[in-house]
Amino acid sequence: MMTVLIVSQGLLFAAIVALVLVVLALARQIGILHERIAPIGQQTPQRGLDVGQPIPRITMRTLDGAPFPVGERLPAGTIRMLLFVGADCPVCKRVLPIALDVARERGLDPVLVGDGAPPELAAMRDRFALSDIPFITGVELGLVLQVNRLPTLVLLDDSGTILARDVVNTRRQVETLLPTVAGHSAAA
């Protein structure tokens, strides 16, 4: 019995020493990271492409790995809705069904642009049963448009020109972007 007690005390002491070493190593890494990301002054955010500008043709990848071109010419009268979402974004999970419902009602071509790890985005696609909607990943499109908050909705006309672009949180905000599209269709 005494042997078991001595062995357990020895193992406990070894575990405490190991934890102390791990904490010291982490503290050192935090110090190194703190030095590397020191403030460099006020940064001017880049605006990216704005309404009325065409986006360049970019080939993204779907969650299944298939190429998916964005910015290419679409059939006449097609309005493509790009919705930037994240798997860990609670607002995205709330807005996603709303935006897709509005897209269905208005005859828009929805495409989801995922931000995050592909396995998490695939789980999100499966949870919302979105197998019939293109779900693309990659940072290129987000960098071109300078998307820095989610969920962001971008509407493109059939030539790849940006019709509307904004962060959306509610159905009303999604629908507010659509009168611009209706006016564009009537003018075309």
TrEMBL record:
Signal sequence bounds: none
Residue ranges annotated for the Thioredoxin domain, each copy included: 49-186
Domain of life: Bacteria
Protein name, UniProt field: Thioredoxin domain-containing protein
Organism: Gluconacetobacter sacchari DSM 12717
Top-level taxonomy: Bacteria, Pseudomonadati, Pseudomonadota, Alphaproteobacteria, Acetobacterales
